[in-house]
């Protein structure tokens, strides 16, 4: 068996590699719609047909059909083998490269991951069902008392963990999951002489990633129980440093101009219920670089909205430092009267929220810089100027920098020239804008696969497929069925392409993932239903034709039975045809 890079390390590499940034080092890109476009580096062209999908971490050329993930792009551009491209990309991102290892346990761990994700999904459904039972009314009353309506509760899949020792564990064991699997998933605590549910007598908040996989849970205690919030610990499928709460909704909210980062689950749920899009929360930890890079995929700017106490203020400063490290524009949003976001939106509504003005990062830091200083004396003003110079040297926009310098000269009485000298910088020149590019959409070339199957695969790859609506059995084409099985099993499009054994398979699969149709949260369900009905019409018609052709080969008794089946199939066919048309 050839050596492998450690699977966890590869996952980290793919998560940190920003394909737009990597490709932009070779190809000037311009965003248009949900994709980035440029002139293909693999063939000569005058009109851009090369696209980069940041959400799926894939590239594809509608002209020459080249496609793949970020490592495969580096392979092609630098003429490297796969291991060489992985090492090259790791060096570019300053990630230490581990030695290749023999990994006979890889398949077992992949199967284990699929089992743990399935257990989490089953737990989420069970928790949600429990919420509506009379014996758990107090938990539903709690959520209603926090201002949540039933539609929002269903949208977020909120649930109830009963005040029972092992109700969930027993239920999932009856479904076929082992005690060890439930322990690994963080659902069950196992002691030498007992085992019990991790979450008991708590309102449950499922933690779902951008691909719709349930990774873990947050539980809010009832009464005075401690801790007030309990989160799933790190597991083989969940790392709280790498995800955010409500990541699954970010993917459905297209063209976000900003993301609001709050502290609590209830803040997220309340703001979104009242019409504020693009709200997420960290998962019981301070903001990490991994989380910042994840958010960068969905919006160009982040608004940090933490509590106004000392701990919250310290967390804001740290978050701004991380966003600066990741080259992400950030602002700070305060809610007045020391209200939490959910309290504010429930008391004052969406209009009042839209009137709030976030502070630019430098503006917020400048305000904090003078909090403990007396600007009425020279020493206080000079210290404020020193602190401000450290802050302003990081401001990149000339207009913004000029604005702060003007205010600072008034506050300190120190000249602009001296302040700039203290900053130790040369005032930046305005950046020149690139000429705009207008991509030409090309018609997708037809091949042996039906357009309906292609569309269904695109819906699965987008992560917008309605739960349990599409099954692998719905696909007749072997390759597309295999893709469906992988996507339904939680494997990302980029990871699927990394498993391709030859260029022909990779090109064919890239064609499928790059299908140029407009899928969004509003039309995904109806589009999937229409395609499934059309697939079923073709399948039924084929079955009817085959049975009709074989009628003459049957004896009288078998022919009568076959005719009855034909009538039933024809009735079903006509019913579905009416739905299609």
Please provide a written account of the structure:
The chain is α+β, with helices and mostly antiparallel strands. It has five domains: 7-92, Alpha-Beta Complex (DNA Primase, Chain A); 106-237, DNA primase, catalytic core, N-terminal domain (DNA primase DNAg catalytic core, N-terminal domain, Alpha-Beta Complex), CATH 3.90.980; 239-357, Dna Topoisomerase Vi A Subunit, Chain: A, domain 2, CATH 3.40.1360; 362-423; 451-580, DNAb Helicase, Chain A (Orthogonal Bundle). Helix content is 48%, strand content 11%. The strands form four sheets. The protein has a five-stranded antiparallel β-sheet. A hairpin with a 5-residue loop joins strand 9 (202-208) and strand 10. The longest helix is centred in the N-terminal third of the chain and has 26 residues, at 106-131. The chain is globular. It starts with 6 loop residues before the first helix and ends with a helix.
Task: Tell me the number of structural domains.
Answer: 5
What portion of residues is helical?
A: 40-55%
Strand content: 5-15%
Task: Work out the number of β strands.
Answer: 16
Q: Using the 3D structure, state the CATH architecture of the largest domain.
A: Alpha-Beta Complex
Q: What would CATH call the class of the largest domain?
A: Alpha Beta
Mean of residue pLDDT? 85
Query: Gyration radius, to the nearest Å?
Result: 28 Å
Characterize the largest beta sheet: strand count, sense, and whether it forms a barrel: 5 strands, antiparallel
